[in-house]
């Protein structure tokens, strides 16, 4: 998911990925739009559901700080665990 703050020209991204061993990792990235100096953080999460909850919390915090979710990206559009696991396995 990607949020942007038009007033400050900043972005924030959060992605939940499954590794080859079945563990889930939350990848977050943030910075100024158009700048190569953004930051990335990788955090292990206990489960897919825990990661989804953390993304919801991040989204709430971003909205409070004036960010908006980019068009076409919504929590409802996030893949289910089964769909996501299949797509990762085939990649």
Automatic annotation (TrEMBL):
Q: What is this protein called?
A: WGR domain-containing protein
Q: Return the InterPro entries for the record.
A: WGR_dom_sf, WGR_domain, YehF/YfeS-like_WGR
Query: What is the superkingdom listed in this entry's lineage?
Result: Bacteria
Query: Which parts of the sequence are annotated with region: Disordered?
Result: 71-91
Record domain WGR: where: 7-68
- SUPFAM superfamilies according to UniProt: WGR domain-like
Which Pfam family, an example, fits this chain? WGR
